[in-house]
Design brief:
With 238 residues, this protein is an alpha+beta fold. It has helices spanning 18-37, 58-65, 117-121, 127-133, 138-157, and strands spanning 109-111, 163-167, 175-177, 180-190, 193-203, 210-220. The protein has a domain at 110-227: Nuclear Transport Factor 2, Chain: A, CATH 3.10.450. The longest helix is centred in the N-terminal third of the chain and has 20 residues, at 18-37.
């Protein structure tokens, strides 16, 4: 009886056939060819490039670490353009303008350069006036001389009037100084209407006429004031 051995039998040597090796090599070559010819080639990682290294000293490193000062910018030129004014507000509705009232110019003052009372009194028809004036007081003779002069000065300076009576003290008293009287509230009658007048008159020293006369015409005197100031429409002897 043969004894059983506890030892494992030696391994059996297996040989790979040459046909199998040839087939494996052919497949490997074909796989490599496909890998190089297809887009999978792009997945191949390129070899690393060399890195340039610069050696820096400690002083240079400190200069690099210090932040650079900010760059200076040129100041901007001031804006020389004029500011645009805001548009003016337009009122919603303009109030109507009041009607224009013509400005009334003050009455001009006339200063006589020629005098007529002396020549008027020498006329033949004035003989009774000359005689009557010879009986008057000196102050009244001056008033009558100025009345005659005043009527003629009004006719010549303002031909639109036809004066026939002059009352120096109609609206206010006169003042006298020597041969000069001043009337600030006189009145004269023209075509049955009364008008204001003021004048300054100087008589000659011999009472023969007038040497100075200046006057200013006034406004019409309201009719309701005539009676108060004894201003008659007609002379008392008419």
């Amino acid at each position: 009886m043969t004894e059983l051995s506890i030892f494992a039998p030696p391994p059996i040597e297996r040989r790979v056939p040459w046909g199998t090796l040839a087939s494996f090599g052919l497949h490997a070559a074909l796989a490599l060819t496909l890998l190089l010819a297809t887009p999978l080639r792009q997945l191949v990682v390129p070899p690393p490039q060399p890195v340039a290294v610069e050696i820096v000293t400690p002083a240079e490193f400190a200069a690099l670490a210090t932040p650079a000062p900010p760059a200076l910018t040129a100041p901007s030129s001031p804006d020389t353009t004029a500011p645009t004014a805001p548009p003016a507000a337009v009122p919603e509705r303009l109030a109507p303008s009041p009607p224009l009232v013509p400005r009334r110019e003050p009455h001009p003052t006339f200063t006589a350069t020629q005098f007529y009372s002396a020549s008027i009194l020498r006329e033949p028809g004035m003989e009774h006036i000359r005689k009557a004036m010879g009986t008057l007081a000196d102050s009244e003779r001056i008033v009558q001389l100025c009345n005659i002069e005043g009527l003629e000065q009004i006719r010549r300076a303002a031909p639109s009037y036809d004066p026939d009576t002059l009352v120096p003290y109609a609206m206010a008293d006169t003042t006298a100084a020597g041969f000069t009287i001043t009337a600030t509230g006189g009145a004269f009658r023209s075509r049955r209407k009364w008008y204001g007048i003021s004048f300054r008159c100087t008589a000659a020293a011999d009472y023969s006429g007038v040497t100075q006369f200046a006057f200013r015409l006034g406004d019409p005197i309201p009719e309701d004031q005539w009676e108060e100031h004894n201003l008659n429409v007609e002379d008392a002897d008419e």
